[in-house]
């Protein structure tokens, strides 16, 4: 009920559209209730005219008058029904627009820890199907409830007051049809939720296949993928058949009960007409009302289902909208002010989801000043990328502090912090737009010269000029039209556009050849003079030039120093160096000197 009340309050934020929709419903129902009476009156009036021997012209006039009245009432009813449907849908679409923006904005603000656990297919389902269920609430549940209450309530009073026996017979099918309709729709709703889950699974299978289509082709795994998709499809198909069976069986039962009730009204009413207890017009009015009432009564189930569907969909949607944002501005947070540009980790510890007995980082401490380059190296899973994600507060530390110019990153605004700290991600994600827009994503109004300088520093400018439409070339979905190295260089150019105080390269040159990486590093030396540079890499040639190298293992710093100092220690770093550089090969040290 809390969810229903919340959705209702949201609809009432558009009062004049709601008022017009409800008002049009009331007028349309009133006019619809007049139609059986007009038809009954026309039959009686015509029968009286014929039985009284009135001339044909008078009988024609009576029929014409009745027909015109019926036509006028029907047209007016149609117009008000049109207004009801239009404004009811308008209210729903206004709500959908507001919720869509709120949902999308929430998704943008939710922390990495949320997205680590949530599946994108499930989020799309909530943002589309569940939001649609909430949108339809006003027109399919609330307005329909007003319509049915008036139509059945006022109609029942009119019929029973006219003839108690015929009135009860006319309404006899209503309880059964209303009950079966409600049961049917609730069953269909339950199976729809199951079907929605199965379709979500089907969507995830398809999404995963499309995302990894090159792997599928490379391993000739199409038959396996088809079997997997076919298995998920058959589960959805079986449930769809069950839904058809439920709908057909119950529709047949409701139709039979309606026709049986109509036969009883015709039989009992016909006897009353023969006995002179009622008129043909009155019997016609009862039969006409039954025909009018048939479809609205069947909609009782749709109405019940709409309330239940809105409640279920709203619960899921509001459950996400009401989630507390783990990473947000602290009360009283101030803008970050960078002067010296000193980054400091002070006994930093971190565990995902606050699981303290499984720490990823333990007591990490180091300092980096403006113009310095800090390199982080270590085995996979040692916590290197986690360190990069803690600086811009993609996650919050569970112990210790990270400061920038003595300002705790948790006490400054996220907007200013993330302008000051840029992370070149390991996953080189590109948008399906032009190369120019991808490079300038962080500053869409940047001048063309800045975009070109950033691309030149990333060793991408000459390649872009060779394309048919240069910087206006549209890259494919996720940048599939570019090679892995080109995508990484483009993300480096995108980051260099921002001019941050701290720049983190999270293994962002792994797909770039050594010669191109050397040229990028040379271009970066000018860029790095006014900022802290942190390089995370597995390839030692990417970080040998750093002022300080941290070797991370099991979340702890086990070695630190310059390249030469760490070689002299003959420890883990030296062992990794020996694995990457054959004995007697001095090519890497020469590269270091040339950088």
Automatic annotation (TrEMBL):
Domain ABC transporter: 343-579
Membrane spanning stretches: 16-35, 146-179, 251-268, 274-293
SUPFAM superfamilies per UniProt: ABC transporter transmembrane region, P-loop containing nucleoside triphosphate hydrolases
Pfam families in the cross-refs: ABC_membrane, ABC_tran
Sorted UniProt keywords: ATP-binding, Cell membrane, Membrane, Nucleotide-binding, Sugar transport, Transmembrane, Transmembrane helix, Transport
GO molecular function terms noted in the UniProt entry: ABC-type oligopeptide transporter activity; ATP binding; ATP hydrolysis activity
GO cellular component, one term: plasma membrane
Places the protein is found: Cell membrane
Record PROSITE patterns: ABC_TM1F, ABC_TRANSPORTER_1, ABC_TRANSPORTER_2
Location, primary (coarse class): membrane
InterPro entries assigned to the protein according to its UniProt record, in alphabetical order: AAA+_ATPase, ABC1_TM_dom, ABC1_TM_sf, ABC_transporter-like_ATP-bd, ABC_transporter-like_CS, P-loop_NTPase, Type_1_exporter
The UniProt record lists the keyword Cell membrane: yes
Membrane topology qualifier: Multi-pass membrane protein
Domain ABC transmembrane type-1 intervals: 19-309
Keyword Transport (UniProt): yes
Family the UniProt entry places it in: Belongs to the ABC transporter superfamily.
Protein name as annotated: ABC transporter related protein
Organism per entry: Mesorhizobium amorphae CCNWGS0123
């Amino acid at each position: 009920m809390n969810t229903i009340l919340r959705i209702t309050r949201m609809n009432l934020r558009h009062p004049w559209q709601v008022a017009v929709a409800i008002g049009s419903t009331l007028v349309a129902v009133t006019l619809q209730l007049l139609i059986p009476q007009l038809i009954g009156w026309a039959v009686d009036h015509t029968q009286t005219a014929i039985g009284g021997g009135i001339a044909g012209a008078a009988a024609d006039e009576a029929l014409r008058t009745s027909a015109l009245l019926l036509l006028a009432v029907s047209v007016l009813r149609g117009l008000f029904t049109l207004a009801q449907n239009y404004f009811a849908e308008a209210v729903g679409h206004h709500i959908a627009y507001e919720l869509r923006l709120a949902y999308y904005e929430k998704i943008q603000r939710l922390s990495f820890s949320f997205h680590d656990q949530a599946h994108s297919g499930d989020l799309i389902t909530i943002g589309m199907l569940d939001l649609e269920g909430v949108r339809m609430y006003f027109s399919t549940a609330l307005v329909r409830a007003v319509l049915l209450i008036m139509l059945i309530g006022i109609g029942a009073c009119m019929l029973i007051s006219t003839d108690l026996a015929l009135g009860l017979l006319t309404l006899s099918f209503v309880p059964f049809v209303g009950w079966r309709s409600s049961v049917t729709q609730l069953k269909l709703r339950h199976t729809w939720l199951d079907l929605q889950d199965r379709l979500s699974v089907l969507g995830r299978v398809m999404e995963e296949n499309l995302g990894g289509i090159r792997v599928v082709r490379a391993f000739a795994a199409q038959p396996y993928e088809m079997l997997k998709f076919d298995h998920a499809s058959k589960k959805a198909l079986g449930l769809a058949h069950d839904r058809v069976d439920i709908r057909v069986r119950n529709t047949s039962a409701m139709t039979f009960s309606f026709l049986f009730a109509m036969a009883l009204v015709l039989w009992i009413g016909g006897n009353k007409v023969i006995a002179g207890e009622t008129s043909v017009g009155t019997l016609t009015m009862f039969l006409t009302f039954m025909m009018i009432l048939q479809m609205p009564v069947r909609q009782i189930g749709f109405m019940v289902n709409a309330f239940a569907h809105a409640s279920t969909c709203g619960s899921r949607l509001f459950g996400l909208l009401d989630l507390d944002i783990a990473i947000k501005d602290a009360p009283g947070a101030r803008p970050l002010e960078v002067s010296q540009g000193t980054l400091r980790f002070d006994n930093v510890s971190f565990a995902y989801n606050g699981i303290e007995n499984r720490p990823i980082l333990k007591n990490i401490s180091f300092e980096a000043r403006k113009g310095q380059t800090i390199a982080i190296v270590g085995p996979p899973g040692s916590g290197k990328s986690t360190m990069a994600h803690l600086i811009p507060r993609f996650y919050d530390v569970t112990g210790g502090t990270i400061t920038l110019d003595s300002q705790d990153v948790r006490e400054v605004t996220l907007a200013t912090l993330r302008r000051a700290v840029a992370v070149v991600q390991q996953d080189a994600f590109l948008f399906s737009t032009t190369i120019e827009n991808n490079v300038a994503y962080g500053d869409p109004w940047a001048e063309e010269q800045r975009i070109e300088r950033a691309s030149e520093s990333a060793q991408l400018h000459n390649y872009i000029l060779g394309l048919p439409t240069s910087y206006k070339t549209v890259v494919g979905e996720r940048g599939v039209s570019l090679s892995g190295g080109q995508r990484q260089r483009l993300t480096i150019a995108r980051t260099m556009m921002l001019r941050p105080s701290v720049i983190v390269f999270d293994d962002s040159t792994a797909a770039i050849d050594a010669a191109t990486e050397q040229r990028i590093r040379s271009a970066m030396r000018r860029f790095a003079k006014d900022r802290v540079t942190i390089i995370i890499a597995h390839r030692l040639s990417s970080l040998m030039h750093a002022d300080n190298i941290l070797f991370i293992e099991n979340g702890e710093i086990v070695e630190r120093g310059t390249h030469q100092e760490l070689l002299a220690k003959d420890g883990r770093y030296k062992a990794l160096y020996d694995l990457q550089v054959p004995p007697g090969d001095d090519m890497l040290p020469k590269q270091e000197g040339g950088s």
